[in-house]
Write a structure and sequence with these properties.
The structure holds two protein chains of two kinds. Chain A is α/β, with parallel strands linked by helices. Helix content of chain A is 37%, strand content 26%. In chain B, helix 5 crosses helix 7.
């Protein structure tokens, strides 16, 4: 059995697209309440790993256990487990035909079968939490990028997930809007949310991460606490990567 | 004898076209309503994970789009009853022809609209725990439907005009009404001109309605 204190347990993950092996044997455990930052050059497989954890991709071999549920076992209710792991995308992926409030409540109403009044209440308190208490009635195209991403975070928080996966949440933002999103993420980390964050924000990695992971060529090349990771990198590719920043 | 244009014939013709016009509108609306259902099923079938669904939908679309509607109507009205043993009346045959014919074009409209929605929308739906069907219904379909309105309006105009082909199976629609009037008064010029104007009024109104709708959508997305 897997260690039950681990929220995410990835064993020997392989993922091919056609003939091309993109993930070449990744092992990764994330403890409850831990914040893990994943760094790596573009195309190295960071998004693919996150997408496998939310089963947006089928894996080629290996196993992924989230909160004790084996994602790829037949008896696992994948819709249930998916709602336990939130995902925040680089491109926000808000639902443009729904208001901000509806974006947040749709999962509560359709997946959790909550009544609308109760769902609205939760959504409003989450909007408060991400600093957008007056945007409930707005539509996504009326928001700035930073506001969109904060709504997307509120949307995933609504499902009360055990873990949130962030795939470059600030990469599509104008520089002056990055801070407001990172602040929301820092608060989540302080509250003990389990988070896996793919990002290029080194400041965030140093300040918030419990562990930093460097992926290149579909393999984890280095895995350390942030101090050691940044001050004393061992892997030559990582040295090269950090040197270019 | 030189031709003499008699505008009063047009005025006299107009009321005589009323019944045909009604039938044209009836067949168009009913045919398109069923065509939309058929087209949605076939369009989603085209996008199905299941290979058999995909090829069945594909075969239907190719056959219908690859043959003239007039042949489809003749085949359905004269040919099929020889095999099925059941005669159908011309109006029913007309509605079925419009439905089956427009269905194939609407299927492509549906497929295109659904495919045009960013894959991230689907993933976001799945990631909050919606099932495949819930995501299709609540996230993808409403967005796709908005994009389908302009091409559906276009298909509306095409099918409306196509009902005139149903004269070959004896449906007493607008064009046929015109032919019957000409058979009596021999005023082809005035009568067919009137018929054409009636069609034009309808198609222009639909086009205008569409432009109004598109403007409204644009205003909403600029909100
Ligand atoms: N759907 C796909 N089909 C084929 N190749 C893909 C697909 N998605 C990603 N890849 C490839 O997999 C590799 C890893 O991609 P990705 O995980 O997105 O990298 P990263 O997020 O680190 O930039 C890249 O080489 C990319 O081209
Ligand atoms: Mg990526």
């Amino acid at each position: 059995m897997s260690d039950t204190s681990n929220m995410i347990e990835i064993r020997n993950l392989h993922k091919n697209y056609g003939d091309i092996e993109v993930i070449k044997g990744v092992d990764l455990s994330v403890k409850q309440g831990e914040v893990v930052v994943i760094l790596g050059p573009s195309g190295s497989g960071k998004s693919t790993v996150l997408r496998c954890i939310n089963r947006l991709e089928e894996i080629t071999s290996g196993s992924i256990v989230v909160d004790g549920y084996d994602l790829y076992a037949k008896e696992t209710d994948i819709n249930y487990v998916r709602s336990e792991a939130g995902m925040v995308f680089q491109q926000f992926n808000l639902f443009p035909h729904l208001s901000v409030l509806q974006n947040i409540t749709i999962g509560l109403i359709k997946v959790r079968k909550m009544d609308k009044a109760e769902a609205d209440k939760i959504a409003l308190s989450l909007l408060d939490k991400v600093g957008l208490p007056d945007k409930a009635a707005a539509y996504p195209d009326q928001l700035s990028g930073g506001q969109k991403q904060r709504v997307a975070i509120a949307r995933s928080l609504a499902m009360n997930p055990k873990v949130i996966l962030f795939d470059e949440p600030t990469s599509a933002l104008d520089p002056e809007l990055v801070g407001e999103v990172l602040d929301v993420m820092k608060n989540l980390a302080d509250e003990g949310m389990t988070m896996v964050v793919v990002t290029h924000e080194m400041g965030f990695a140093r300040e918030v991460a419990d562990r930093v992971i460097f992926i290149a060529d579909g393999v984890i090349q280095e895995e350390e606490a942030p101090d050691e990771f940044f001050s004393n990198p061992k892997n030559p590719r990582l040295k090269d990567f950090l040197g270019k920043l | 004898m030189a031709f003499q244009f008699k505008p009063e014939v047009m005025v006299d013709t107009l009321p005589l076209l009323a019944e045909g016009l009604e039938l044209t509108i009836y067949i168009t609306l009913l045919g398109l309503a069923f065509g939309f259902i058929i087209g949605t099923v076939a369009g989603l079938g085209r996008l199905s994970q299941n290979r058999i669904n995909r090829s069945l939908a594909g075969i239907y679309i190719e056959i219908i789009r690859g043959t003239p509607m007039i042949v489809q109507a003749l085949f359905l009205y004269f040919g099929v009853p020889l095999v099925s043993g059941v005669r159908i009346d011309p109006i029913t045959a007309g509605v079925i022809t419009i439905a089956v014919n427009s269905g194939a074009y609407i299927a492509e409209i549906v497929r295109g609209a659904v495919q045009s929605i960013d894959a991230g929308q689907f993933e976001a739906g799945r990631s909050i725990g919606l099932t495949h069907n819930q995501t299709m219904l609540s996230i993808i379909w409403p967005q796709a439907f908005r994009r389908m309105i302009p091409p559906l309006g276009n298909q509306f105009i095409i099918s409306l005009k196509d009902t005139s082909l149903l004269t070959v199976i004896g449906v007493a629609e607008l064009t046929r009404s015109g032919q019957e009037i000409v058979a009596v008064n021999f005023r082809s010029f005035e009568v067919y001109l009137t018929v054409a104007i009636v069609y034009l009024c309808m198609t222009l109104s639909i086009a205008k309605g569409l432009r109004w709708y598109e403007k409204k959508l644009m205003a909403r997305s600029r909100r």
